[in-house]
């Protein structure tokens, strides 16, 4: 059939946990939690053994340890996770004609047309075995005619398995599953459907599309398509150099270090917010300086994938001080985040408290409503604030600084 696609989905099983078990073989087969230590920490990942106790990611560590007091806790190793992710990316890049790195541990491969030359499942299975052999990490594989069905197939193949759904069998494969097995169907949507008696994908697929639209808006149309095994989303080619950046040319050249620091903070917060809005993480930071004589210098560093301002700011300032020549006036500075991958805050959960994560979510919610400059660190705002981490509010802002500080004391730390 014209237009038939072949899409493979690779997913590194319990990625953080698997890396920890590779570092310490004695952890294998035990209830293992990766995340922030102590009562205020958060679970970033947990082993299958821990999940049997009802533990899941983003759960407060204190609660997880109440559910499973004998669980082993590891603080996480962002650098090691990023290194393994880069290693797997390199192997897929060498072999696949077109691939998308959808997160630190997930990949889509568009293999359309390859079956004319050799068995697609055989080729994909051999690539999976190569990754397992070289990294010693488990990886599951799903193969289907579109991204959504291949992802569901991968989830069904876990742990460390593979599953192929023949073209034309998508609806049959999905039909008996619970509605929340469909990607992007969260607890709230699933609850709405169940209240209306919709328990399985088969039932969902039989509901008229107009009725689903009336229930759930545009999301109802998308849901109907998914329930019927339809997904036309393309595999977006992964470009390592895709980036988010900003720079500022000053009206007059300067050597004022406090001002330069303040600009670095402002720019880093601006594009850090953009990262989180796009659900992306960065693995590389570049700082650029142009002096008054137009000499331009740049320096970059690879970092563990993150979108957290406090981590990004530390690295940006470190790069700036390595570059900056105090004898020269500065004309321009710039900051760029590259090596972007899709992903959320999860990779930082092992270094942050539940309060810090809630703080970021609250700040980004406010910025989304009123603009990214609505709330900034003190060192990036008006001179009346001492450099630091105090919030700065616009004069007519409906949220008062003192109230915000009382509610989120972590902002000033």
In short:
The protein is of the alpha+beta class.
Structure description:
The chain is α+β, with helices and mostly antiparallel strands. It has three domains: 8-134, MutS, DNA mismatch repair protein, domain I; 172-227, DNA polymerase, domain 1, CATH 1.10.150; 244-412, 2-Layer Sandwich (Dna Ligase, domain 1), CATH 3.30.1490. It contains 15 helices and 15 strands. The strands form four sheets. It has a five-stranded mixed sheet. Strands 9, 10, 11, 12 and 13 form a five-stranded antiparallel sheet that branches. Helix 10 (209-216) crosses helix 11 (218-227) and helix 12 crosses helix 13. It is globular, with a radius of gyration of 24 Å. Belongs to the DNA polymerase type-Y family. GO terms for molecular function: damaged DNA binding; DNA-directed DNA polymerase activity; magnesium ion binding. Residues 7-186 form the UmuC domain. It is found in: Cytoplasm.
């Amino acid at each position: 059939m014209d237009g038939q696609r072949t899409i493979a989905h690779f997913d590194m099983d319990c990625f953080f946990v698997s890396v920890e078990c590779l570092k310490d073989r004695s952890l294998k087969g035990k209830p293992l939690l990766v995340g922030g230590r102590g009562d205020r920490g958060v679970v970033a990942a947990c082993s299958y053994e821990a999940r049997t106790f009802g533990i899941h990611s983003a759960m407060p560590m204190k609660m997880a340890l109440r559910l499973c007091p004998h669980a082993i806790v590891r603080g996480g190793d962002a650098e090691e996770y990023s290194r393994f992710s880069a290693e797997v990316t390199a192997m897929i890049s060498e072999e696949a004609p077109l691939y998308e790195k959808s997160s630190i541990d997930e990949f889509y491969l568009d293999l359309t047309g390859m079956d004319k030359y050799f068995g697609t499942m055989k080729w994909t299975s051999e690539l999976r075995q190569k990754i397992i052999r070289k990294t010693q990490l488990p990886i599951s594989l799903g193969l289907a005619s579109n991204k959504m069905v291949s992802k569901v197939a991968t989830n069904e193949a876990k742990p460390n398995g593979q599953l192929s759904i023949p073209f034309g069998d998508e609806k049959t494969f999905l039909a008996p599953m619970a509605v929340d097995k469909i990607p992007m169907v969260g607890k709230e949507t699933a609850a709405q459907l169940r209240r209306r008696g919709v328990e399985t994908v088969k039932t969902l697929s039989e509901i008229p599309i107009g009725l689903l639209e009336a229930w759930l808006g545009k999301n109802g149309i998308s849901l109907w398509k998914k329930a019927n095994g339809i997904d036309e989303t393309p595999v977006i080619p992964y470009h390592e150099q895709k980036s988010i950046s900003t720079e500022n040319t000053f009206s007059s050249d300067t050597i004022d270090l406090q001002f330069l620091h303040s600009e670095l903070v402002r720019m880093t917060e601006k594009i850090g917010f953009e990262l989180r809005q796009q659900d992306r993480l960065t693995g590389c930071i570049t700082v650029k300086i142009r002096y008054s004589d137009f000499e331009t210098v740049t320096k970059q560093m690879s970092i563990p994938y993150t979108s957290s301002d406090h981590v990004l700011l530390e690295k940006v300032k470190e790069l700036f001080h390595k570059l900056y020549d105090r004898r020269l006036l500065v004309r321009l500075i710039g900051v760029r985040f590259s090596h972007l991958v899709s992903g959320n805050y999860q990779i930082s959960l092992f270094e942050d408290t539940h309060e810090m994560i809630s703080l970021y979510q609250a700040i980004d919610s406010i910025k989304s409503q009123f603009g990214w400059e609505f709330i900034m660190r003190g060192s990036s705002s008006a001179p009346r604030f001492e450099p630091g981490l105090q919030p700065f509010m616009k004069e007519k802002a409906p949220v008062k600084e003192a109230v915000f500080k009382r509610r989120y004391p972590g902002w000033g730390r």
